Amino acid sequence: MHTQDRAAAIRFGELMPASRVIINSPTTHGAIGFSTDLAPSMTLGCGSWGGNVTSDNISPHHLMDIKRVAFETKPVSSQQSAVSNRPPASQATAPINRMVPRREDIAAIVDSFLSKKLAQTPEPPKAAPVAEVKTVVHEITPENAVQKPVPIKTVDFVSEDDVRKAIESGDKIYISKKTILTPSARDLGEEKEVFANV
């Protein structure tokens, strides 16, 4: 390609929002790197114009995690920056007045704010008079102090039909380690979460 053609191609690429400009080659084959020296790839990054993070042909190099260890080559705080940040001589001897609020001051500000807010809120409407309520105290005796557990009866055998009936009625089937389950009943019951182990 002549020098003038190369310069025109470069200007064309700068003016057009494109990540790759294929010259003298089929666009499809050139863009994926088949007929050009671009990285062979079927995933083409379209750069910031298309909202991508890269404009490269995505290759295995983009799928590798690279850990970089960086050593300090220049100190963060140098003498020059320290000198530039130094206050003028007139202010150097002046004490620094830092306003540190006290807890009492903060509490007073919060109380003042809340009192203003409460003063602005309208009073709720008065409710109708409520009938007199009598409180009934039940005596707690040892018999009713502790609720007795309800005995749960486990079944000895479960079929698929039993599981379907439990699903329709919304009940649980209580099983133990000794309960015999048919394979179809086990599959359906575990899928629908019908079983409860005791």
Give an overview in words.
By secondary structure, the protein is mainly alpha-helical. Among the domains are: 3-60, no CATH class; 157-197, no CATH class. Helices cover 35% and strands 5% of the residues. It is built from eight helices and four strands; from the N terminus they run ααααααβαββαβ. Strands 1-3 form a two-stranded parallel ribbon. The model has no long low-confidence stretch (mean pLDDT 76).
Main attributes?
about 200 residues; mainly alpha; two-stranded parallel ribbon; 8 helices; 4 strands; about 35% helix; flat
Please tell me the overall pLDDT: 76
The run of helices and strands is HHHHHHEHEEHE
Unreliable sequence segments: none
Beta strand count: 4
Distance between the termini: 84 Å
Q: Strand pairing plus helix content: what structural class?
A: mainly alpha
**DSSP helical segment count:** 8
How does the overall form come out from the CA principal axes? Answer: flat
Quaternary structure? single chain
Strand order of the largest sheet: 1-3
Radius of gyration: 40 Å
**Percent range of helical residues:** 25-40%
Strand content: 5-15%
Major beta-sheet overview: 2 strands, parallel
